[in-house]
Write a structure and sequence with these properties.
Elements (H helix, E strand, L loop, with lengths): L8 H16 L11 E7 L6 H8 L2 H4 L2 E7 L3 H9 L5 E5 L2 H8 L4 E6 L10 E5 H5 L13 E4 L6 H10 L10 E4 L5 H6 L5 E4 L3 H7 L3 E6 L8 E6 H6 L1 H16 L9 H11 L3 H6 L13 H13 L18 H10 L2
Parallel strand pairs: 1-2, 1-3, 6-7, 6-8
Antiparallel strand pairs: 3-10, 4-10, 5-8, 5-9
Helix pairs in contact: 2-11, 2-12, 11-15
């Protein structure tokens, strides 16, 4: 129950100051927005750092948004809730199930790419130390018929990333045995001979190498790849388009506050660590992901993932899903227009 409280002179001055402060965060000539709750599902990864910075540095609050953050294990888990309008936003990785949803015309759309690989990145294809040193496996072309660990298993973003690396050795989707294994377990599985190779993300690939549990087969491949996205539910887009635009404005403000050397600003680092548990030494040692300052949709990866999953028989359809059935550009474009360059 809300309690009414009488304010004395000092209280009125403090209240007036608070109103001025809130109003000053709004765009020139605009009134301060009302606070709107936005329910967001996320997988706690550094890929979604713009979301965490936008929350912790007050950009969401500045745009009149309170984020109700819900942790999920995968994008597939969030997918059902997005399609049912039980979530407003999904910070998720693309997977075969997402493309199946687009083909079935479920009401959700990709509105922004979260991050991309740079020319250097921490994801690697690794192999067993003994097999490498014995000369049995020295390149991805020698993984034919081998057991490969991938977090998320068949149809996952990790599966896609391994496939694009394996293309260099002429390895197809059915030329190896896939083992669904979380990234933190890859080093031990390789050293114990339970798998022969792995597609391992940062920082776990570096840990496996520094602990002499594995050897690298492929590094820094496919720069520009972007497998994680922000998706809006249909109800959020239709019923609260203004809030949807302001949500992206807050993300763009965060992305702009993370560019270059600002990536390691103490306030940003605190946000990364709070939501992902990433360690200081990893942030210092690993090449950072790219966070575009306009939160653009990287369509090249979306199209290639859809095609790769479909041609590998990992989709439940055979005719390509049109790009415009998967993305919605207007919120990102309006957000950039309002914020300016």
């Amino acid at each position: 129950m809300r309690k009414n409280r009488r304010l004395g002179t000092g209280g009125w001055i403090a209240a007036l100051a608070a109103v001025v402060m809130v109003a000053s965060t709004a765009a020139p000539g605009a009134s301060a927005p009302l606070i709107e709750k936005v329910v967001v599902a996320h997988v706690p990864l550094i890929n979604f750092a713009t979301l965490y910075v936008a929350i912790e540095r007050g950009f969401m609050r500045e745009q009149g948004i309170e984020v109700d953050l819900q942790r999920v294990a995968s994008g597939t888990e969030a997918l059902v809730f997005l399609a049912q309008d039980r979530l407003d936003v999904g910070a998720i990785g693309l997977a075969a199930s997402i493309f199946n949803a687009f083909n079935r015309k479920l009401d959700l759309r990709i509105v922004a790419t979260t991050s991309s690989w740079g020319q250097r990145h921490g994801t690697r294809i690794l192999t067993r130390l003994d097999l490498f040193d014995a000369g049995e496996i020295r390149s991805v072309r020698e993984l034919r018929g081998r057991r490969v660990a991938v977090a998320g298993g068949e149809g996952s973003a990790g599966h896609y990333l391994f496939l694009i690396g394996a293309r260099r050795g002429g390895i197809g989707a059915r030329d190896f045995s896939l083992v669904n294994l979380p990234n933190p377990n890859h080093g031990a599985a390789l050293s114990q001979g339970r798998v022969d190779a792995s597609l391992t993300g940062s920082p776990f690939a570096s840990a496996a190498l520094t602990q002499f549990l594995a050897r690298p087969l492929l590094e820094n491949f496919a720069p520009g790849t972007s497998t994680t996205i922000f998706a809006f539910s249909g109800g959020f887009m239709k019923n609260r388009p203004e809030v949807a635009t302001r949500f992206l404005m807050a993300l763009i403000q965060a992305a702009r506050a993370m560019q270059g050397s600002k990536f390691l600003d103490p306030d940003n680092v605190a946000a990364y660590k709070k939501y992902t548990g990433v360690r200081d030494e990893v942030l210092q040692a690993e090449p950072p992901l790219l966070y575009y300052p306009d939160m653009r949709i990287v369509t090249t990866t979306i199209l290639d993932m859809e095609k790769t999953f479909r041609e590998a028989g990992l989709a439940d359809y055979s005719v390509a899903v049109p790009l415009e059935a998967m993305i919605e550009r207007r919120f990102q474009q309006e957000a950039v227009k309002r914020l300016g360059p």
